[in-house]
Write a structure and sequence with these properties.
Layout: H1 2-19, E1 24-25, E2 29-33, H2 38-50, E3 55-57, H3 59-65, E4 77-81, E5 86-87, H4 89-102, E6 115-119, E7 122-126, E8 131-134, E9 137-139, H5 145-148, E10 155-158, E11 161-164, E12 181-184, E13 192-195, E14 203-207, H6 229-243, E15 253-255, E16 258-261, E17 268-272, E18 275-282, H7 292-304
Parallel strand pairs: 2-12, 9-18
Antiparallel strand pairs: 1-5, 2-4, 3-4, 6-7, 7-8, 10-16, 11-14, 11-15, 12-13, 13-14, 17-18
Length: about 325
């Protein structure tokens, strides 16, 4: 998805420059694991397709560069993407909402959509306090997309987020500059992802494919919002203790989150074949926020009848319906 990622970077960087705020931090990202694994080979292939530079690191170069990593498998190597990094979701959403207001948009905070009804002439959107009538509607409701538009092959799953503290805060070895964003495909099956601390944010580390769905997924309204020591923390604690011994293995903070999967792991973006008044954007929700600005540009072009800035066939909801 390099064109969408590059468009998101362009738009967020431009908006950040306008308002004098950092919305994206290009710390770089290190993808680690077997040279034949998805983490390493996928980054190299995507970068080659987009014409972007990545640096391939041998096992010894990786171990020297990131002494925080422990238990590297003998065949582990890495690919370093200097253009990657982290974005700040809450900050970005606030900035985009403010920009929308400046452009004349009306925003209704804390207003839940309870129903979307289509007829021959357009769409009615219902909420507890107000109804809207429009010729088109974009539905980008995250884990609730399948609730509002039944029949979409989406499976929300509960996915806690975790933050950790370093054993020695004075060392600075887990700041974002020294411990950049990473995806680590470990040979013991305990895949990890995360990034170092920056701007008062903690060290974020999570398990790859946590809570992966094998069916219809959960009802987001009924999601378990408690944190459980045995199922949520113990397994990750053991993995962090082995892989990153410089961190306190018990997380300092855990917050339940939800990710929405599609059958092929790609977004659903485009008009519904059953009703061209409805444009959807979902799938990978909660995990793919980094693409949100570029997806917003695609949605605007679809609604306006303009030619999209990149190919969208692989995202078309019709591939499943």
């Amino acid at each position: 998805m390099p064109p969408i990622a590059l468009k998101s970077l362009e738009l967020w960087t431009g908006l950040g420059d306008q308002i004098g705020e950092r919305l994206v931090h290009q710390s770089g990202c290190l993808s680690t694991g077997s040279p034949r694994g998805r983490a390493v080979s996928g980054v190299i292939a995507a970068a080659a397709a987009a014409g972007l530079p990545v640096q391939q690191l041998s096992h010894d170069e990786l171990a020297a560069r990131q002494p925080q990593y422990a238990g590297l498998a003998p065949g582990d190597v890495a690919a370093w993407d200097p253009g990657a990094g982290i974005c700040y979701p809450e900050r970005n959403v606030r900035a985009q909402a403010a920009a929308a207001r400046r452009a004349g948009a009306d925003i209704y905070p804390h207003t839940m959509v309870t129903g979307i009804e289509a007829d021959r002439d357009g769409i009615t959107v219902r909420t507890p306090t107000v109804e809207f009538r429009a010729s088109q509607v974009v539905v980008a409701a995250g884990a609730w997309l399948g609730t509002l538009l039944p029949g979409l092959p989406l499976a929300p799953r509960r996915t806690p987020q975790y933050w950790f503290r370093p054993r020695d805060p004075r060392s600075g070895e887990f700041t974002l500059d020294r411990f950049p964003a990473f995806i680590w495909e470990r040979d013991d099956g305990g895949g990890l992802w995360g990034h170092g601390s920056a701007e008062d944010f903690g060290i974020k580390v999570g398990p790859e494919n946590a809570g992966i769905s094998n069916g219809a997924g959960i009802d987001p309204e009924e999601m378990d919002r408690y944190i459980h020591l045995d199922t949520d923390i113990d397994e990750l604690t053991a993995c962090v203790a082995r892989a990153l011994p410089g961190l306190e293995p018990r997380p300092a903070k855990v917050i339940p989150c939800v990710v929405t999967d599609s059958p092929d792991g790609q977004f659903l973006i485009g008009r519904l074949p059953s009703d061209p008044h409805v444009v959807v954007a979902g799938g990978d929700s909660g995990h793919g926020f980094k693409h949100a600005a570029g997806i917003g540009e695609l949605l605007a072009q679809i609604v306006a009848g303009e030619r999209p800035y990149c190919a969208t066939g692989f995202l078309d909801p019709a591939r499943f319906l």
